[in-house]
Amino acid sequence: MIGKTLYLPGFSHLLSGSRPQAQKLVKQTGNLDGLAALVGRFIPAEIFTPEPGGRPRVFTPWITFVAFHGQVLSRGSACRETVRRVQAWATASRHSVPDENTSAYCQARSRMSVDTLRVAHEELGSWFEKHKGQPWCGRAVKVIDGTGLSMPDTPENRKKWPYSAGQKPRCGFPVARLVGLFCLATGRLVRFAISTCRTDAEIPLALQLIGWIHAGEVVLTDRGFCEWGFMALLQRKGVDVVMRLHSSRSAKEARSEWGKPPRWLNGWTKGLWDELPEKLAVRLVRFRIAIPGFRTQNVVLVTTLLDEAAYPDEAIAELYRRRWAVELFFRDIKTTLGINVLHCCSPDLVEKEIWMQVFGYNLVRALMLEAAWTYQVPLERLSFKGTVDTLRQWTPLFAPAIFAFKRARKELLRVIAADQLPDRPNSHEPHARKRRPKAYSLLTRPRRQLNAAVS
Fold it and tell me: Is residue 244 situated within a structural domain?
């Protein structure tokens, strides 16, 4: 006799198979509920309330957001896998099961507005404002840096984000430039600006982030942002800078005043340029790197922190040494989460995908910060990749019907805090690959022309 005990609502032995298979299915169906409960700790679900008067949908804005977020946390996850996850959740919770086709889910993602995703980003940012990291010399430090993004080669994407210079038609991918503003203490991506890789340099994009830099903070950047106007605008706002001295600047005097250039540069308006002061007082800090494996031996920094007693040379040099953390932040969001190669085929969805990637990155950073503070471990020792892996596996436990939320959250933070990276200061690995690439030639003509030539 075949038993019909329900291990999962709506399923019997006839459909679920053996008990281990049924238990595995329970975990899979809990993914959506568990992820929604976890995300709901940081942002209210009410911001995704459907518009009044709309017809009932399986993919509501909140379900779409949670499903999209789960797709972001699983790099390489296709829309089909996400739809299957929603189908399993809907079956287990006795909701209307969506069709197997991914069209409904893709349309639901298209209906999500960028403004709503921006509100979710700001809600999560307000949580970080209540849980700030350790300041440097009593001041918050924000880091600015830029990177490049690639996306599918579609006519819509090419129109908004063209190829890089010199790329042959239909033989490359549209490329965008992104400049991000990070919090050095927590790793949070505060804000970003994006544009094409051809027309806009990094300075004009950085100017769009000025509104999220507050008086009393310190901005840490590399030499690419060492421009008089950018430094003067930050100084006018009460923000100090620490950056590498540009190679075109003289490094002879330890203290100097940089005069205002006679003409405003790219990205500036005449009115804003006229409001900047005529002189900018700066201080140069020199230090030497004698660690094997590092290319640079002599480094010259420029800063507007003129008080040597409050900000000695050693402290400024150590702060600039920490600037390398922004490269690790970009590695986490580009390599681990996969923002370096986007998957959406239209500019509107590409922008939404970027916002979702940023939200997923900040959510992982929030869990890392919470674990570091709860168990008194250094935040920089926690593994971002390990936290993402732990979050994916522990998500089913956050479903209300499966496990106690507080107990699961406490244990999740303990596991994250226990997964610490080894302390290897000044570690260096050669920039070389061991695995050889496949012996395929590069695409120099569109595939249609190559196929016609072969046939």
Answer: yes
Which residues make beta-bridge pairs with 139?
136
Asked if residue 66 and residue 146 are part of one domain, the reply reads no
pLDDT in tens, 162-213: 888 778 888 889 999 999 999 999 999 999 999 887 655 788 899 999 999 9
pTM value is 0.87
Q: Backbone phi, then psi, for 21, in 5-degree steps?
A: -65, -40
Q: Do residues 245 and 169 both lie within one domain?
A: yes
Beta strands in 373-420 (DSSP E): none
What are 207's two structure tokens? Answer: 């100017």
Q: Which residues lie below 8 Å from residue 86, measured CB to CB, with a gap of 6+?
A: 32, 58, 59, 63, 67, 98, 105
**Residues present in the chain in total:** 455
Q: Would you state the pLDDT for residue 265?
A: 65
Q: Residue 388 in 3-state DSSP?
A: helix
Same domain, 151 and 88: no
Domain that holds residue 33: 1-112+383-424
Residue ranges in 43-194 assigned as alpha helix (H): 61-73, 79-92, 103-111, 114-130, 155-160
Q: Do 145 and 99 fall within a single domain? A: no
Domain count, the chain: 2
Same-domain status, 56 and 162: no
Give residue 7's pLDDT. 38
Residue after which a domain boundary falls, among 301, 333, 365: 333
Residue 290, sorted as left (phi over 0), alpha (psi -120 to 50) or beta, turns out to be: alpha
Cα–Cα distance between 264 and 38 in angstroms, integer? 48
Residue 62 counted as domain residue: yes
The alpha carbon torsion through 209, 213, 219, 221 (nearest 10 deg) reads -10
227 lies in a domain?
yes
DSSP state string for 182-222: EETTT--EEEEEEEETTT--HHHHHHTTGGG--TT-EEEE-
Short-list 74, 102, 75, CA closest to 87: 102
Same domain, 320 and 420: no
> Torsion-angle region of residue 339: left (phi > 0), alpha (psi -120 to 50) or beta?
alpha
CA distance 316 to 135: 14
Of 256, 194, 202, the closest CA to residue 230 belongs to: 202
Residue 320 near residue 299 (C-beta atoms within 8 A)? yes
Confirm whether 45 is domain-assigned.
Answer: yes
